[in-house]
Amino acid sequence: MRAALAVSLLLLGLAVDAAAAKARPAYGALAYHRASGSFGYAVDQPNDRAARVESLRQCAHPNCEVVLRFHSDCAALADGPKRQFAHKGSTRQEAETRALHACGAECRIVGWACTR
Predict the structure, then answer these.
(1) In the beta sheet, which residues pair with residue 39?
(2) What is the H or E stretch that residue 92 is in?
(3) Whole-model pTM above 0.85?
(4) What is the bridge-based pairing of β-strands 38-45 and 108-114?
(5) CA atoms of 105 and 4, how far apart (whole Å)
(6) Which of 17, 35, 45, 86 has fewest C-beta within 10 Å?
(7) In the chain, count of helices (H) and strands (E)?
(8) Tens digit of pLDDT for each residue in 18-50?
């Protein structure tokens, strides 16, 4: 009886840990400075502000701007001769495809990131 209770408590603890891991905040952001080509990203940050700050820090150019914020998703940034476009998707492939489609001909993926 004690062994069964111990196993039940152990399984309950594992289930709680798994649920907590899924519920963790997973904020992300992409930052970009088109003229210099500087790119920065942040993933799995505790909140939106932390994600924006980290992406700007990684971008490392004083004129970088956050071009997309996302949560529990993937994001990609496409750049071309006339414009840039960032888009979200449930996978890296989906985000890149959407960004390229929205950006138009002669665009290329500059960067991407996915949260948990």
Answers:
(1) 32
(2) helix 92-103
(3) no
(4) unpaired
(5) 63
(6) 35
(7) 3, 6
(8) 554 556 789 999 999 999 999 999 999 999 999
